[in-house]
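Example with several molecule types.
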Amino acid sequence: MKHLFFFILVVSFVASYAQEKYTLSGYVSEKKTGEKLLGVNITVGTKGAITNEYGYYSITLPKGVQTVLISYIGFQNISKEIDLQKSTTLNFELDDNPDQLDEVVISGNSASKKVTSTEMSVSTISAKTIQKLPMALGEPDLLKSIQLLPGVSSVNEASSGFNVRGGSADQNLILLDEATIYNASHLFGFFSVFNTNAIKDLKLYKGGIPSIYGGRLSSVLDIKQKEGNTKKFGGEIGIGLISSKALIEGPLFKGNKDEAKGSYMVAGRRSYIDLFSFLNDEFKDTTLFFYDLNLKANYGINDKNTLFLSGYFGRDHFELNNFIGTVWGNASGTLRWTSILNDKLFLSTSAIFSNYDYTIDNFRSGSDFRWKSNISNYNIKPRLTWYLNANNTLKTGIDYIFYNFKPGEISPLNGSVIQAEKFQEKFSAETGFYIDLKQNLSDKISLQYGARISNFNRKGKATIPVYDNGVPLSYDDTQNIFIENEIINETEYKSGDNIKTFWGFEPRFSLRYLVDDQKSIKFSYNKMYQYLHLISNTSSPTPLDIWAPSGPFLKPQSADQFALGYFQTLKDDKYDFNIEVYHKSLKNTTDFIDGADLLFTENIETQIAQGDGRAYGLELQLNKNQGRLTGWLSYTLSRSERKIQSINNSEYYPTNNDQLHELNLVGLYKLNERWEFGANFIFGSGRPVTYPTGKYKQNGLVITDFENRNGDRLPTYHRLDISATLHPKPKKRGTWVFSIANVYNRQNAASIYFREISEVNDKEVTTGRTEATKLSFFGIVPTATYRINF
Amino acid sequence: MKYLFIFSILFFLISCETNVTNDITLNGAPPKLVINGGIERNPTNPRSNQFIELSTTIDFLDQSEPTAVENAIVMVNNGIEDFEFIHQTNGMYTNSEITATLGTTYTITIEWNNDTYQASDTLIEAPSFDNVYSVFEEETLFTDEGYFVNFDATDPLDIDNYYYYRVFLNDVFTIVPDRGNSATLIENDQFFDGQARTGVNPNEEVVFELGDKATVQLLGITENYYDFLFQIFEQTGSSGFSPVGNPPPASIGGNLLNITNPKVRGLGYFYASDVTEASIIISE
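Resulting structure tokens for the full complex:
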């Protein structure tokens, strides 16, 4: 197989050097703001190129006169005749298409490109669309919006994470301007950390993940922040019930030229949900808010070199007076240098810092303490893109990450007798070397393939326990339980020593066969390794989860995924349709053993078991791209299961996010220049739940007994949300967005739980009697926000 | 995750609970043997009998009392000799001969339904109280206004200690399935080894009035029993609350092993414990 690819590669090189050729290259940007445009089509006859993530394109063409067509959805096409007598740099600026702009909002990807691209299992949704969709809690939300796409779901409305094709929430690589975001949620999952005002573009890879990405098994969510207007100063203010936000942007080093050498964007957001706490006397001393800041600046050193600086800082604060206080959040910074080495070589180099931390202050008298924990990383990524010729583009690079884990540190507060103690820090280094080639073999067949070689080192300084029997946990076959082994010795590693090294070979392959202009068939395979594990003993992630590196007692996770798809456009791209099937098998996914206690536990390997998983399904999406009514219908049929020793009698059990059917219907309707309406309907079959099989008494309390994990199902989930956007009159600035979530007030079950009846006449007591209770999150929620652009 | 229960407060603002007891059909399971009880050494208020209770599980939404096991043969060995525990009423088995001594490992053997079950635990010394007193506290989000019993105690240095606190209101043992139990009723000295602690509230849910008799017990327990109590307090405190802080539901393994058929484990815990006890009358 490998030899065949090499042969094809050589043949196509030879073929393309047979004629005299020159290169046309440059940037494409938006005329109004100067913002670089990603994924713009440059077409010359039958040849084509698209702009990369920095808006740069390069295409090799035969000498002579020809017509270049620049097209991008929502913008007016440019058709330009050029006489190519030498390699030429040509920048383009695209103007809004007034007829199209507000109609076509589903994604930046045109319908025909979905058919012709080698990419499959990829979803995009524009920030503009997200802002028009109905809001659950008064705030346009990126993570909630991507869950309207096939194959993406979450365990419930208050889950910090999302699940892609049956993967767990920690298997998503979330990148904000290349920096890893470890916890993408505010307020325990009701909101995501991404301020949609500051977002330019996002892309979600569910499969066929190219080799430039690595480190997580299930998906890559690649989010890019706006760079800022290079032409004039501007901004936006949004006022909502839950939060308010502001954004300013403008040129840098403009002087009196038309276009500046750089630009900046600063955005901020703060929630004030706690201002409503006075409504309930019990909560009057509660502090609860989040805020975040987004920043981006770029500076063009010269025609060939550009510097970018990007940052994110977000915090959640939660305090109950005299009882407990917690603070958590992400911080990240990216410095990137892009350089056009020559008309065929594009180099980008990024240095990235990313951090996630939390603090818990316990104010209970007698044992006041502060607990701190964090994970941080330093990342360097040089990447070279080589536009070999019109049919071949090669990307190669190195991705080096150094991790520092501080699992926990406790210190006394208010003079309590709690003794200061620090769990040992963990260090590790992850290196990925990758090569990725995009190749058009013929008019019909296009390939994208490559490989990533990953290396992970758990490094000293560390003291590693030596367990009896050589492992932290021994499986007892007769009782079907894990038994913790004693620590019999310790091994000391000095700073920089390699404690344990892992290697991974990750081949990636995608193929597109064009049946005709409107139809294509695609196939992809990808292998992924994941060296970090999110250790959580709750059903869904929380802010207090611990990230842990692979090491002597924790093996890397891996996944193999195959996907096959059919893509088609209908009625001149008015509609497009795709259907995909996939199968994913997972190795060494982690789960905690029964009865695990993870917080304040130093040797977490004694609490974790690893096992296999499998997920498979069918996804279908029909998009309507043009007209007054736009939107999509998506349907997912899927299964996701795990098999881990000791859990569920060591047999396969459904994961918490397993859902057989999921249907989303999203519609946006433009009534006139002022009014737009949106609606989405969500239907999902019941998620797994574990019902009790018996009860007994212990120490005066009723204890519940269970047998099969996730053996039962919650009731069906469905909900309708609607929204209306009122655009300002000509020359006015304010926009209103009204939204009603859960219109028919369905009390969907987030969970059903079983407990002893313990409250009688408002007093806590034990009764011995038991009940089943359904928990629902929000019922009908009307919200409104007001936006001003200047 | 001891402190996660705090987060659930937030959800009350926007969540809603519905009783669905009558809409749910549960798949039951064959009854399992349950042990509740153990050997206690209490120098302040010695037990006249040592007793343990045996029962079997019943369906979760069955509102009758658990079925008492009356036909088991129960023996406890103290490393030297066997003592037979005799059934009295309602699944209660007693013995007045056995003595509770520090450092002894007690092993219980139960013959029931043609299966032999076994469990053992070691009796570990508990430190004495430095002081026991009552404190008046105002209402907080989690506690009512009223008088609480507090104690001071010194943790023995360089020993891993595990504690379980019991509170009696007018001689009635009082416990409620509260979210805070796994952080309040049991503690280990991981972060206060060898320290003299003051103002420890052994159960924040028990509110006293002036003139009430308050009894507090400090039990020295094994790490194994601590882990078991942690699990039952986590389970009863979280009520299976899904979004935060609840461990996914699983059977809680105690220490009662089925020797004959190991996959069918018994439930509950047979413990041995040293008990430090003190009583006060609540006054201003």
